[in-house]
Amino acid sequence: MANGEVEAPAGHMVDRVGVAMLGSRSSATAEQEEAFCDAYHTYYPHVFRYLRRRTDEQSAMDATADTFLVAWRRRNDMPGETSCLPWLYGVARRVLSNQRRSQRRWRALTTKIAATSGRCDPSIEERVIHDDRTQAVIDAMAKLRPDDQELLRLAEWEGLSHAEIGVAVGCSTHAVDQRMYRAMKRLAAELPHDWSEPDRTPEEGPS
Predict the structure, then answer these.
(1) Are residues 76 and 134 in the same domain?
(2) Predicted TM-score of the model (pTM)
(3) Which site from 26, 77, 171, 191 is most exposed, i.e. has the minimal number of CB atoms within 10 Å?
(4) Is residue 96 one of the residues assigned to a domain?
(5) How far is Cα 172 from Cα 181, in angstroms, rounded to an integer?
(6) 62-76 pLDDT, tens per residue?
(7) How many CB atoms lie within 10 A of CB 14?
């Protein structure tokens, strides 16, 4: 599957995250503030890339800012280093879902403006160099349920283990094992009969 590599804006810092921190700094311990700043500087590019693979650049930047705003407000719930990134992906996933809901009423206007200007932000697929085999996977993925698509993207694009995916989507590792197995079967069913991936061995599903 395509990695969908995208670059985070170089040196981009989200001003409103700093404002939010200043507004509630008195309620944070020094340890919490240091842990949040470390997570922000370490994982900002990862969260941005996660979101950029799923939406346009400006929306990804806004959603990244909102993700870290939520993380700051929920700093008491922020896990340690091992689980921090999957947890942030889970926050970003919910932020993006809320963002999409709020944007639906503007969709027709945005489409009209894009058609009038003759320009639009390139899609994720247009940003990724891929061949016919990768296109076949993209086409097959589009036929799956959104939840199945997200599981496969977290595994392939973000490189998360099943345990880390469980943190991101809020379920147990065993549940991810079962859901991933079913998602892979559905994906295989949508692929052309002559498609194969000889260099990969799919994870064994539950017996």
Answers:
(1) no
(2) 0.65
(3) 26
(4) yes
(5) 14
(6) 999 999 999 998 888
(7) 19
